Amino acid sequence: MKILVLGGSYFYGRVFVMLATQTDADNEYHVSCGTDRSYEITVVNRGTYSMENFGVKQVTGDRHEGSTWEACMDDYDAVVDFCAYEQGDIRFALEHLSGKIGQYILISTVDVYQRGIGDSKTEETALEYRSFPGEAGAYIAGKVALEEEVRKECGKRQIAYTVLRPAILYGPYNYAPREAAYIQLMLQNHVLPHFTDTDGRFQFVYVKDAAQAILNCIGNEKTYGQAYNLCQDEILTYDSFFRTLKEVADSEVTKTLQEIEISVDVAMAQGVPVPFPATAQETELCDNGKSRRELGMTYTDFREGMQRTYNAFRNVYLGS
């Protein structure tokens, strides 16, 4: 099967390519893809990270420039779009792809759901059309608009589409200031914060699971015109997150670890990351039942996923 990947060199997309091509020196992603298919992959991105050692064709360029697409005139069984953020991104891509496309898979987010309604969100929950300030507000508005756009533009062209809505992604290669930042604090500074005023709850999804979900969707007619939440079963708090992180750490690390009590406001003022919902008002939870039933998803236990993540970043931060 021929797959065109848009974006895909940084984290989620990188792991998807590794899983699909079974190319990973650390064996983290040498697992069954659940299919006997072989994949011929072309990756389009700005070339920040080379993907050619994964045995894929890499096209370097900006998706907003027409010339970038000149090397992508083939037919594709699926397009997997990791980097659509603004209204018009999908329309522009489809206008410049002259070959036949079997399926368009949009990577969205669970943040598209209407906020503050209190229930665990299913795929039938209304989307959020209110405007919110700042970068986060722009991100939500962009993804909501793109979900409408993929339905409209694929409908006009009779292309099947699927939308995936991952929760907070974590795992090896995640260099965003999330779990990796705390692991770095543990390993290099021998400290962890202990937030004194958080009551927020949140859900993660291990990046390999989210990548597997894409493979489960490709060519799967049951997923056409559907959206799926991707999230682990566990509902976490900062306390349970830090407790798990200490459980998976090496004993020599935990013996010297200092936990510093700190409020969220002070932490943010001092540059300590507070990347997950800190308050009950920020809490927005989702249901993964549809992905289990229709995609056959099984989700990695959080402790297991954090053990793998810790091991990967230990090698990065300690050079071992």
Provide the descriptors you would attach to this structure in a database record.
alpha/beta, 10 helices, globular
Structure description:
The chain is α/β, with parallel strands linked by helices and 320 residues long. The chain has helices at residues 12-21, 89-96, 134-157, 179-189, 207-217, 238-248, 251-255, 264-269, 289-295, 302-318; strands at residues 2-6, 40-45, 57-60, 78-81, 103-107, 160-166, 168-170, 191-195, 204-206, 226-230, 258-262. The protein has a seven-stranded parallel sheet, sandwiched between helices. A two-stranded parallel ribbon has the order 7-9. The protein has a two-stranded parallel sheet with strand order 8-11. The model is unreliable at 29-35 (pLDDT under 50).
Topology:
Layout: E1 2-6, H1 12-21, E2 40-45, E3 57-60, E4 78-81, H2 89-96, E5 103-107, H3 134-157, E6 160-166, E7 168-170, H4 179-189, E8 191-195, E9 204-206, H5 207-217, E10 226-230, H6 238-248, H7 251-255, E11 258-262, H8 264-269, H9 289-295, H10 302-318
Parallel strand pairs: 1-2, 1-4, 2-3, 4-5, 5-6, 6-10, 7-9, 8-11
Helix pairs in contact: 1-5, 2-3, 4-10, 6-10
Put the structure in a nutshell.
The chain is α/β, with parallel strands linked by helices.
Q: Which of globular, elongated, flat, extended, rod-shaped describes the shape?
A: globular
Strand content: 15-25%
Q: Write the element-wise H/E pattern from the N-terminal end onward.
A: EHEEEHEHEEHEEHEHHEHHH
> How many β-strand runs?
11
- Distance from first to last alpha carbon: 38 Å
